[in-house]
Each structure stands twice: as C-alpha cells, then as structure tokens.
Amino acid sequence: MGKKRVLLVDDERSLTQILRYALESTGTYEVRALNRAASALAAARDFHPDVILLDVMMPDLDGGTLASQLEHDADLHRVPIVFLTAIASRGEVAANHGTIGGRMFLAKPIDLQELLACLEHFTA
User: Tell me, what CATH number does 63's domain have?
Assistant: First the structure.
C-alpha cells in the first residue's frame, strides 16, 4: 500500500517544515506543505490528499473559508479536514473529544503523538 497523502496548510513556515519532516520520517506519509491558503484549493486538486491539516487563522484566507471551498468541490468534498488552532487550548479540545462545532481540531502547539493518532484515524 502506498504512502498516505497529507496536505498541510499553515502560514507558519517553521511549523510546516517541522511537521512535514516529522510525518515523512515515519515512512507512512507524503506531505505537501503550503504557507498560503489561497493556493491550497488548486494544490489539493493536484495532490489528491487523504487528509487535510488546516490552520484556522491565516492572513490571506481563513481556514473556515478554505474548508467551505474544499467541501463544495466535487473532487475534494469527502477529504477529511482537521483544523490546527492556537485559539482553543489543548484542554478545551480534549473536553470536546477533539471537536469544536462538529469539526476535528488539534490545539497548537501540536503534539506529534496526538497528530499521528489523528492521522491514523482518518487514513486507516
């Protein structure tokens, strides 16, 4: 079976570099990292991700708007989206079983084991 494809969209370049390296070093994931949300829809169409990790607050396009665009795309609407956020604390996310408003969330700073468990859930 091939590697699972993860599209990572976050304006923090250092975070995307660290997460890309950490995920790819497992040998399980192929990661395409973007630091501009405006280019993510086209990249997702090209990359065909198994899951999308999406920052909530970005300067060029917020994560909620991008998620809506992805969910209304005929080819991408079934791809799971996991939001990454510094807005909610790890405790708040955990208290809601990883969801806020029916959406999957991971709190920043990202815990690698938590991220891997989340990805395994969506790509198993």
Answer: 3.40.50.2300
